[in-house]
Write a structure and sequence with these properties.
By secondary structure, the protein is of the alpha+beta class. The protein has helices at about 45-75, 80-100, 145-170, 180-200; strands at about 10-15, 20-25, 35-45, 110-115, 125, 135-140. It has a six-stranded antiparallel beta barrel with strand order 1-2-5-4-3-6. Helix 1 (about 45-75) runs antiparallel to helix 2 (about 80-100), helix 1 runs antiparallel to helix 4 and helix 3 packs antiparallel against helix 4.
């Protein structure tokens, strides 16, 4: 392998709109590459959509986290009407930051397999020609990077679910007369647990 040559994470490849053949010509001596490695690719737009959703979800989680941290910092007012109002505001702000997000799509992405040469960097994914030889530049992302991002996204979904449950408790639980300390302890425990799990 040439010094510094690494498998690409994001790459633009001329891709035939007919058969789907892809190629970045290499420069290996003798006109052919040897020692090629499998390179699974995902359309960049699928990766970018997941990345944008992940960023929005992370922003929403930060809103919820800040609410929980603030409540823990002012424990004496943890069960007050003002604390409930702050928590309801945080829920609204979280929806604004996150937008309308569903869970992570569990369907497999549109993966295509190409072959990458570690010597010259050439990429090739030959297909049977159907006599429609029009090649256009298409952006692709390494499927490994996509899988890592999807794992991160799923982790955020789990964090968001616990955070939302904790903040909703703060927003809508009203302690019964004489049970303030018991309710306070329970809500503090829920808040700490949510924050600890998000930091893990």
């Amino acid at each position: 392998m040439e010094p510094g040559r690494t498998m690409p994470e994001r790459v633009t490849i001329l891709t035939c709109i007919g058969c789907g053949a892809m190629q970045i010509p290499g420069e290996c001596g003798g006109g052919s590459c040897s020692g090629e490695r499998r390179l699974d690719l995902v359309p960049a737009d699928e990766f970018d959509e997941l990345q944008a959703d992940t960023a929005r979800r992370a922003a929403g989680i930060e809103v919820l986290s800040e609410c929980l941290r603030n409540c823990l910092a002012t424990a004496e007012a943890f069960t007050s009407r003002q604390a409930r109002e702050r928590s309801r505001t945080a829920l609204r702000d979280q929806r604004t930051a996150s937008g309308t997000l569903r869970g992570v799509d569990t369907n497999e992405p549109s993966i295509v397999t190409a072959w990458w040469c570690p010597r010259c960097g050439g990429i090739d994914a030959p297909q049977e020609c159907i006599d429609v030889c029009i090649r256009k530049p298409v952006e692709w992302v390494n499927a490994t990077a996509y899988a890592q991002l999807r794992e991160r996204a799923q982790s955020l979904v789990d964090q968001e679910s616990q955070m939302l449950a904790a903040v909703r408790s703060l927003a809508f639980v009203t302690p019964k007369l004489g049970q303030e300390h018991k309710t306070l302890a329970a809500l503090q425990g829920v808040a700490r647990c949510a924050l600890e799990n998000s930091a893990a």
